[in-house]
Design brief:
Chain A is built from no helices and 11 strands. Chain A is mostly beta strands and 111 residues long. Chain A is globular, with a radius of gyration of 13 Å. In chain A, a hairpin with a 4-residue loop joins strand 7 and strand 8. Chain B has 114 residues and is an all-beta fold. Chain B contains no helices and 11 strands. In chain B, the strands form 2 sheets. In chain B, strands 2, 4, 5, 6, 9, 10 and 11 form a 7-stranded mixed sheet that branches. Chain B has a 4-stranded antiparallel sheet with strand order 1-3-8-7, with no helix packed on it. In chain B, a hairpin with a 2-residue loop joins strand 7 and strand 8. The relative contact order of chain B is 0.33. The chains are: A mainly beta (111), B mainly beta (114). At the A-B interface, strand 4, strand 5 and strand 10 of A face strand 5 and strand 10 of B.
């Protein structure tokens, strides 16, 4: 089955700097790669996703890149702000039944 | 997300007790999921259901059972709770037309088994 590895497990960046979280997946049939943000005391919420026919997608300060050959994808957050502090999960799916999540990255934005 | 509600939000129970966690949704989605979250382990799928008559095991179904009472309701049961089932449990939904795309999560239930 699919296996998703996520790094780093914890990341601290200065406010205003960029943050990058990286994930790899094992199933070449996976074609959907969402990113979820989980704030304290809440359930995960989708922030951006990318499908296998696209190499990059941007939404304001966040962007995702996908390298299908290498089976890895990344989340980039620019001009980080205090409200970006949260746990971020990458995930992979064939789009048919279930999503397999990475173990999460705790992002701290330092003042 | 108020469209997906979970009850109770917190529960402390003793080893050996039966406990049920409930999930309700008003999004009109066909697909519902139960996940378990442990520190450092991310979200792991316990069970998922495509409709009332379709129930599937996830990667960690041992020790759990589910019931899909209606399109909008999906319950998770621990028949005989054990301490290593202490975790945060999330229910999620997605639209059948979208496959597994975009799952909407409830606020979670924090379960402690003593």
């Amino acid at each position: 089955g699919e296996n998703v590895e996520q790094h780093p497990s914890t990341l601290s960046v200065q406010e205003g700097d960029s943050a990058v979280i990286k994930c790899t997946y094992s199933d070449s049939a996976s074609n959907y790669f969402p990113w979820y943000k989980q704030e304290l005391g809440k359930g995960p919420q989708l922030i951006i996703d990318i499908r296998s026919n696209v190499g990059e997608k941007k939404d304001q300060r966040i962007a995702v890149t996908l390298n299908k050959t290498a089976k890895h994808f990344s989340l980039h957050i620019t001009e980080t702000q205090p409200e970006d502090s949260a746990v971020y999960f990458c995930a992979a799916s064939r789009g048919d039944d279930k999503i397999i999540f990475g173990k999460g990255t705790r992002l701290h934005i330092l003042p | 997300d108020a469209d997906v509600t979970q009850t109770p939000r917190n529960r402390i129970t003793k080893t050996g007790k039966r406990i049920m966690l409930e999930c309700s949704q008003t999004k009109g989605h066909d697909r519902m999921y139960w996940y378990r979250q442990d520190p450092g382990l991310g979200l792991r799928l316990i069970y998922y259901s495509f409709d009332v008559k379709d129930i599937n095991k996830g990667e960690i179904s041992d020790g759990y059972s589910v019931s899909r009472q209606a399109q909008a309701k999906f319950s998770l049961s621990l028949e005989s709770a054990i301490p290593n089932q202490t975790a945060l449990y999330f229910c999620a939904t997605s639209a059948a037309s979208g496959g597994a795309y975009e799952q909407y999560f409830g606020p979670g239930t924090r379960l402690t088994v003593t």
